[in-house]
Amino acid sequence: MRYVIIRDDDTNASTPVECLERLYRPALDRGLPVNLATIPEVSLNACMEDGKPEGFLRFKNGHSEPVLPIGSNPKLVAYLKENCGYEILQHGLHHDYLEFERVAAQEAPETLERGMQLLREAGFERPQTFVAPYDKFSSVNLREVARRFPIISGGWYELRRLPCAWWPQYAWKKARRATHWRVGETLLLSHPGCLLSCFRSNSTSLNLILKQVKSKPLTVLVTHWWEYFRHGAPDEDFISFLHETLDFLASDPEIKVIRFSNLLRDRIPLN
């Protein structure tokens, strides 16, 4: 059996319900869980490295506040709670650029706790999985996250960004050529890049997804909901490709799509 986790990043208080419904109704109807990396208190001034606004802010609809907590969108919160196929992950706090690489070490605990509090106040369960904006951490902040979350979903991990105490486990991971690894009670997952992306050709993405899923016991597939609506209108070809991918995952009896939290309860092979 091959296991797949679908991770969609950047759900926030400005995300239209209609976008998530359009993308993931086929998955929900077929019992495929979708893991949403959710920004607890999105910055409406968040920018990318080039200074342009983040793509997920296209739908902020005239809001002028500096930040919007997830609970300020009751329609979105109700939709996510009504559809049990969604699992909520904590995605930073504001989603500032390289947030958890740049936030000061003394501020990281309060930043993490505030994010958890905002998600709980909105009515969600305490998140068990953390996703950093851009998958980047400083070594000190990575340690703070590991103290609070049993699962960290990242891209890849570099020795210079790890706490020194973790180096032996990292060396063992490298020696085994393992994709996923553990430090104490924390599971650290890697993904093979954003294979479901508008910045790749669909044909190239399909080949990469097939190769990855068939060759690994556990694959985290990452995508971003706003990429399917990046021009203010649905990208029908890209949405169709997502739905074809979901159909492939659902129809193959050797593949099972799971939640991050399944890794804490079930005996699922990691590598």
Overall description:
- With 271 residues, the protein is of the alpha/beta class.
- The chain has a single domain, classed as 7-stranded beta/alpha barrel, CATH 3.20.110.
- Helix content is 35%, strand content 19%.
- It has nine helices and eleven strands.
- The strands form two sheets. Strands 1, 2, 5, 6, 7, 8, 9, 10 and 11 form a nine-stranded mixed beta sheet that branches. A two-stranded antiparallel ribbon has the order 3-4.
- Helix 1 packs parallel to helix 8.
- The radius of gyration is 18 Å and the shape is globular.
Blueprint (SSEs and pairs):
Blueprint: E1 2-11, H1 17-29, E2 34-38, E3 41-43, E4 67-69, H2 74-82, E5 86-91, H3 99-102, H4 108-121, E6 129-131, H5 139-148, E7 151-153, H6 167-176, E8 181-183, E9 186-189, H7 202-215, E10 218-224, H8 236-251, E11 255-258, H9 262-265
Parallel strand pairs: 1-2, 1-10, 1-11, 2-5, 5-6, 6-7, 7-9
Antiparallel strand pairs: 3-4, 8-9
Helix pairs in contact: 1-8
